[in-house]
Amino acid sequence: MSDTVSNIEMSRRRLLGTVGAAGAAGLALGAVGGAAGYAAAEESDSGAALTDVGATEVMFHGKHQPGITTSMQSRGHLVAFDLAPGAGRKEAASLMRRWSAAAQKLMAGEPVASGGQDTGIALDAGPSSLTVTFGFGRGFFDRTGLVAQRPAQLDPLPAFSADRLDAARSNGDLWVQIGANDGLVAFHALRALQKEAGAAARVRWQMNGFNRSPGATAKPMTTRNLMGQIDGTDNPKPSDPDFDRRIFVPESGKPEWMAGGSYAVVRRIRMLLDDWERLPLDKQEKVIGRKKSDGAPLSGGTETTKMDLDKTGPDGGLVIPLNAHARISAPEANGGAAMLRRPFSYHDGIGSDGVPDAGLLFICWQADPLRGFVPVQRKLDRGDALSAFIRHEASGLFAVPGAPRSGEYVGQRLLES
């Protein structure tokens, strides 16, 4: 990189290139390259210094929790917990206090002593853009006696015809999203938080994901999913004037403890890759409504060119078919409904029949899922050409409060209200 810093010793706590939660201007789903978002260090005389990827630290405190507008990371873990039998508000508050303290250390690249000794998994690595994000599921409020504080936005999602949901891998009292640009750093955080849960909560489900690594492409670009499609072009951007209104709960919003927070819809979407890959390229592009090579709409232009939904071809038919995924999901086709998609791909092996268990750990963020995810998914459910090649296998909805102030823990304004 052009901003390489030489002959400077960097400690794990004194790292430049910090990315604030609200400072990821220009973020699109998978805009991972992030050359401007990383600080680099060359080896110094004292030994091997942290690389640019390892040196980047994301702040724990801020207006919004990290892992929402933070640039996409190459490794991710999603894990849901249920409070243990007999655990209530007191135990939940103690758990969130422990988790918040651990997350702050982990994100700074510091060891976390659990039971008197850190596991050492992430020794020698810097923070690597680690983020830890916490959310509360609908059942959390029943377990803690805080039903009166439960947001209406946590009402159960409606059923969709394409759903094949596994209840054991859906929902949960507590949700944790971990992202990092190093696999060992991400796993270290997962293991530390699992141990910190102690007897207060038990793992309900856990999923692992990945994206492109920073620097894997010649220039920053929108990521591709496992179907080979550029995915995330129409994501709202922090530079948009209405971004905060669409993605975050306002300071004057209700309930008050959710000010600065957001709602995460989590869906495990299996891709039927064998069926998809049998389609000729031109048919794949008609299913999506965009060119596979560069993500440009079939109506012409580049990836960021606005789709011309009325353009017709020589045969008089619409260039972008009526059932194309990009047409149906476009904000202009959904009354402006928008959500910030920030997923990970996943691959959980190949079955005895040779079929890969692979797809997308879909995560989307919005100020209100009833105005973001739900109307768009309802429309997709009625006629999206892509539906024949995907299957929704798990689902969750979580309230993610704003970031804690200095000296606070995540959820303190709820649990001590």
TrEMBL record:
Its cofactor is heme b. This is Deferrochelatase. It comes from Streptomyces sannanensis. Keywords: Heme, Iron, Lyase, Metal-binding, Oxidoreductase, Peroxidase, Signal. It is found in: Cell envelope. NCBIfam families: Dyp_perox_fam, tat_substr_1. SUPFAM superfamilies: Dimeric alpha+beta barrel. Residues 290-312 are annotated as: Disordered. Binds 1 heme b (iron(II)-protoporphyrin IX) group non-covalently per subunit. Belongs to the DyP-type peroxidase family. Residues 222-403 form the Dyp-type peroxidase C-terminal domain. Transmembrane segments: none annotated. Involved in the recovery of exogenous heme iron. Extracts iron from heme while preserving the protoporphyrin ring intact. Pfam families: Dyp_perox_C, Dyp_perox_N. It catalyses: heme b + 2 H(+) = protoporphyrin IX + Fe(2+). It comes from the Bacteria. It is an enzyme of class 1 (oxidoreductase). Its EC number is 1.11.1.-. Residues 65-211 form the Dyp-type peroxidase N-terminal domain.
